[in-house]
Design brief:
The protein is of the alpha+beta class. It is built from 18 helices and 24 strands. Strands 1, 2, 3, 4, 5, 6, 7, 8 and 9 form a nine-stranded mixed sheet that branches. A hairpin with a 5-residue loop joins strand 1 and strand 2. Helix 2 (22-35) packs parallel to helix 5 (162-178), helix 5 (162-178) runs antiparallel to helix 6 and helix 15 packs antiparallel against helix 16. The longest helix is centred in the middle third of the chain and has 28 residues, at 316-343. The N and C termini lie far apart (85 Å). 40% of the residues are buried. The structure holds adenosine-5'-diphosphate (ADP) and magnesium ion. Residues 28, 31-32, 92, 97 line the site of magnesium ion.
Length: 588
């Protein structure tokens, strides 16, 4: 028999989606406090929230005659009409937070607006909300929730231990606090304070350390939102923090994402993190950090899930690109700075000769020394370089004083041993050359500069069927990178031009086509072709190099945007400091 459910049952069903565990109650109440413009939010929990949850704020408060209706389902002050759903600027909007909590717990709400002399208290349980009674209270709202799931024993069984539930609450609140530095947050459990974050206008350091741990907190690089066009994707502003390559994790769990102040559970942007990180570190490692995306409310639809922990982006591709660009610009800037440090370069002597203004400043406050290094013009991403800029860059390369780095020897035909007079510097010749070639190819191709060098004696290669197919798929990208191959009968190609800039070095075509099949995580199709092209057109391990060649290679490496890693993410340079040597000799 089909029948309409009674209101109480309907309320329980609806509440089931919103209030899953004690954390859900904290989340709904804290979101309400933030929406009410609070500058101070304190949360007090007992027995993991199973005994009681209390959230107090100093926000707008609720007027006496609205106190009862606030508990009705679908009652909200945040939407007036259905079209408002297209531009939601508040965390709540469904009007079911308080109703859902009251459906499964006892709720006492005390609230006072700025215009009232006294506060009012309402008790709500199930579908009932008592008439407001006057009570002495400070301006703002205090909500006390007890007997959670007292009337839904089945739900109670799914709840973990008080400790586990409290950990969830604590992690959530500390994370949320990252997006609201202007709000003071405090949390206590069973009467003992867990944390108390003061309003932080300048620095998030304390909150970051709480979420990511004290040491990783230091390793976070700030993503500067208005860092030139590379961090901006039109009306999308990306800011936040990303971990320094080398300090990373094996999983993606600490890749936190806020969109317009809303903490999401989504993994939608995991690909963008990886893509940005791929050429900076080993491929199985994951960066961590927190991203704040700000975009016009119309660009994102949060009305996807009852807990509002997921969103739909109107233009997901743009979001992905903006995030990838912002992260990789931050990592590139950092890599350049670390490279200069690693090689202890004297400030370049040609900083101003071509009228370059020194507008780039380093994010971590490295001071004049580092910003000098950026003045070379290599800190901008290749996309932003015009053909003209590429030419200047080329000219500059010759002008820049050779770094104070002396090549000492080649080891095992594989590593270059050098020194700056202080430390031993080891360079992987293949990885280093790969990086240099990769960036050169990217820059030239993106700038539309001539990239191909016609061969005096074209040669013919024959491919297996699957190779030919792979090759055909990348023909366009190949051509834009300087490899010109003409079909020459079935599955055979005549190579008429190879990428410019490698002199007499022979382009290893067979190995290259073989490599096209491999995915290099994170690089887009064209970049993958370029990385592969770079890999197979440069010196290999096991090749003897002249001193002059080694010097030229180091000089070029220093000028790379990301000199510390090859395009596949392997390190190019290792530096042995005197104190490390001293330890080896048991001197200290
Ligand atoms: P929603 O947040 O989706 O609007 P809720 O059921 O959570 O729905 O809250 C209902 C209404 O009660 C809100 O729209 C708001 O007007 C009011 N309200 C709830 N909590 C607070 C608070 N802490 N401060 C001020 N107003 C509040
Ligand atoms: Mg709400």
């Amino acid at each position: 028999m089909i029948r309409l459910l009674d209101e109480t049952t309907v309320g329980h069903i609806a509440a089931g989606e919103v209030v899953e565990r004690p954390l859900s109650v904290v989340k709904e109440l804290v979101e309400n406090a933030l929406d009410a413009g609070a500058t101070r939010i304190s949360v007090a929990v007992t027995a993991g929230g199973l005994a009681s949850i209390e959230v107090a704020d100093d926000g707008s408060g609720i007027a006496r005659d609205e106190l009862q209706i606030a508990f009705a389902r679908h009652a909200t002050s945040k939407l007036a009409r259905s079209s408002d759903l297209e531009s939601i600027a508040t965390l709540g909007f469904r009007g079911e937070g308080l109703a859902a909590i009251a459906a499964v717990a006892r709720v006492r709400l005390i609230s006072r607006t700025r215009y009232d002399e006294v506060g009012y208290v309402v008790d709500a349980h199930g579908l009932e909300a008592s008439a407001p009674q006057p009570i002495a209270a400070p301006p703002g709202t205090r909500v006390i929730v007890s007997e959670l799931f007292g009337n839904v024993p089945a739900r109670r069984e799914f709840v973990s231990s008080p400790t586990a539930e409290f950990t969830r609450i604590s992690n959530f609140l500390a994370t949320l606090a990252l997006a609201y530095p202007e709000v003071a947050f405090s949390l206590s459990h069973d009467g003992r304070p867990t944390f108390a974050f003061a309003r932080a206008t300048a620095s998030l350091a304390e909150r970051l350390a709480h979420v990511f741990g004290p040491a990783p907190g230091k390793a976070l690089l700030p993503i500067v939102p208005d860092d030139g066009p590379s961090a901006r994707g039109g009306d999308i502003v990306v800011s936040g923090y990303v971990s320094t390559p080398g300090i990373d994790r094996s999983d993606r769990r600490m890749q936190l994402l806020f969109v317009n102040g809303r903490l999401l559970r989504t993994t939608q942007l995991a690909g963008a993190w990886s893509a940005a990180y791929a050429t900076f570190a080993l491929s199985h490692r994951q960066p961590f950090g927190v991203l704040f995306l700000d975009l016009a409310p119309g660009g994102v639809d949060p009305n996807v899930h009852p807990t509002k922990s997921d969103v739909r982006f109107r233009r997901p591709g743009d979001i992905h690109d903006a995030v990838r660009r912002a992260i990789s610009a931050t990592l590139a800037r950092n890599a350049t700075a670390r490279m200069r440090d690693a090689l202890s370069l004297a400030p370049p002597v040609v900083a101003d000769r071509n009228g370059y203004s020194n507008s780039q400043t380093s994010a971590d406050g490295g001071g004049a020394y580092r910003s000098q290094a950026f003045a070379l013009g290599y800190a901008t991403s290749p996309e932003t370089q015009t053909a003209h800029a590429a030419e200047i860059a080329e000219a500059r390369l010759l002008e820049v004083a050779t770094p104070e780095l002396r090549v000492l020897a080649q080891l095992d035909d594989t590593f270059i041993l050098a020194t700056d007079g202080r430390a031993l510097v080891l360079v992987d010749q293949h990885a280093a050359h790969e990086r240099v070639a990769f960036e050169a190819i990217c820059t030239r191709a993106r700038a539309g500069a001539p990239v191909a060098e016609p061969l005096l004696v074209p040669y013919v290669v024959e491919l297996e069927a699957d190779e030919a197919e792979r090759f055909e798929r990348s023909r366009d990208a190949l051509a834009s990178a300087g490899l010109d191959a003409e079909p020459f009968g079935e599955r055979a190609y005549r190579i008429v031009a190879t990428p410019a800039g490698y002199g007499a070095r022979r382009f290893d075509f067979a190995a290259y086509v073989d490599d096209l099949g491999d995915e290099i995580a994170g690089l887009d199709a064209r970049e993958r072709v370029w990385a592969s092209l770079a890999c197979h057109s440069v010196v290999r391990a096991g090749e003897a190099l002249e001193r002059g060649e080694m010097e030229a290679l180091l000089a070029r490496l220093v000028l790379c945007e990301n000199p510390m890693h090859c395009p596949h993410g392997r390190p190019t340079i290792v530096r042995l400091e005197p104190d490390a040597l001293a330890r080896m000799f048991k001197r200290s």
